[in-house]
Specification:
seven-stranded mixed sheet, mainly beta
């Protein structure tokens, strides 16, 4: 079965950095664009950013552009989210998700993604 497993979350002080990883299995990884979403308590799951199947292009929400960077290693079937300049507002459960490569990589809605990980908690203290 398809499985996406996030790791790397934790507690960090404001201004700090974290690298999240997502390991994929059970799918042809380079047939999928990959996205990162986050969800804070009492809020809807929101788009963070996405990376094209090839790794040749990325797309970010305005709230994280310039601070976060997505990358992928297709040989290792891994996607990453490097988070810098973290702020308390970034506190959330972070999820990775997969979207078929035949579709646009710039998808920002939950319904466009067909595979999801279980999430990893990121907590930023002030």
């Amino acid at each position: 079965q398809v499985q996406l497993v996030e790791s790397g979350g934790g507690l960090v002080q404001a201004g700090g950095s974290l690298l999240l990883s997502c390991a994929a299995s059970g799918l042809t990884f380079n047939n999928y664009h990959m996205g990162w979403f986050r969800q804070a308590p009492g809020t809807e799951r929101e788009f963070v950013g996405a990376i094209k199947w090839s790794g040749s292009a990325t797309y970010y929400a305005a709230s994280v552009k310039g601070r976060f960077a997505i990358s992928r290693d297709n040989a290792k079937k891994m996607v990453y989210l490097q988070m810098n300049g973290l702020q308390p507002e970034d506190t959330a459960v972070y999820y990775c998700a997969g979207k078929p490569a035949r579709t646009a990589y710039t998808g920002t809605t939950v319904s466009e993604y067909i595979y999801w990980g279980q999430g990893t908690q990121v907590t930023v203290s002030s």
